[in-house]
Amino acid sequence: MIPLAVYYRVWYVVLSILCNFLLISSLTQELFKIERYVEMVLTYIRLDSISSDYVITKINLDEVVKDSVKKYATIFINKKIKLNYVSHETMVISDKKWLSFAFEQILGNSVKYSGTGGEITIETCENKLVIEDNGMGIKEEDLPRIFEKGFTGFNGRYEKKSSGLGLYLCKKTLDKLGHHIKISSKVGEGTRIEITFPKEDTLRD
Predict the structure, then answer these.
(1) How far apart are CA 9 and CA 78, in angstroms?
(2) Model pTM above 0.85
């Protein structure tokens, strides 16, 4: 029979490890959020000059999606969000660095406004990248203004965690890349966002 003192000691160690793990996990998430906000601010400052930083070439959307999802892996796990994505090569004309920045703003919103146990679906095809979630959705009256600088909408005010810059910078970046973004949403059902790419390299013309 295990002595009571040893039993309690073992449980104390186990609980200490668990608490440390949860603390580290929480700190990791907070640091990640800080990094995202810093990145947004720096992008906002450089917005008028970032076109000189573009490297337009054929890129694989699969790599953009995988790299972005990997950054949010901890939050996916903690919120028990299911990801539906079939990996396959899809080549488009874009700038990998800045397309990744824009996509991560969208993915971040999907993760933020999806509840525990939610579901996010990502699809790629010939010249389109689609991300769809079953989160809280966007009010119809907010949709026309979601790309405005500083606009947080009902969701942002409700969550009290919105800067009003993410989608604004996303749209500006995609516009400069010659890509088109379309958003449809329904409150209580979720949001669908489509990024459409030019079939030819129009930025080099």
Answers:
(1) 28
(2) no
